[in-house]
Fold:
Amino acid sequence: MVLGIRLNWKEIKRVFASLMIEQDSLRQVLKRHSTVFSNGLGTLKGIKARVTLRSDSKPKFCLPHNMSRALRPKVKAELKCLTEHSEWATPVVPVVKKDATVRLCGDFRVTINPVLCVDKYPIPRIEDLFACLAGRQRYSKLCCRLDLLKPSVAGAVHRSQDSQQLRRQQHSKARHFQIWEPVLVHDHRKGEKWRQGVVMAQTGPVSYKVNVSEQGVWKRHEDQMLARAEQTR
Structure:
């Protein structure tokens, strides 16, 4: 006994043609936006990162958090890519990524955030976003690699450094310490605020290593140091 099955070839061809059209449309979208869907490292273009501080703000230089010695070379390399010197210093928390490199997360709550001029653009609530999607029939999900997009901040960093240096030259007292010079260094712990020490080496344009007797060798910014003669006046 043979059963005959009637196929609606017209409907089958119509469905097949629709699938082909959708595939062609997808290929066109991928080709037109190839830079978005590429596997390489992207660059954020047309946007310059900039923060605006209050006019009465003063630079704040904080000590770094403790971290393992294995991460220190990687953290120093990342910091060197961002800037060479700044009057602002905020603690960072290194996060190890899958490729063994590190991502630096700055703790700006103690430095920039209190003196930051914040734009009043509130983030939409999730309820408002869901209300905008009401009645929609098709949805898509795109996984964006936003963590790999780095805005070009080199120009802004250099301009900020030049501005800070000029402001420092105009309004601050120049300080320069010689090797073996007796100085007072700021102690960030509770108790005495200043400790006597001797300059051992200059580690940067404005940073020094100071031997503080039993406390060991401390690394300090010049703003955290005083000549003993200067302190007695």
The helical segments are 9-32, 72-82, 126-132, 154-171, 228-232. The CA atoms of residues 158 and 170 lie 18 Å apart. The two ends are 117 Å apart (CA to CA). The domain at 43-132+149-171 is CATH 3.10.10 (HIV Type 1 Reverse Transcriptase; Chain A, domain 1).
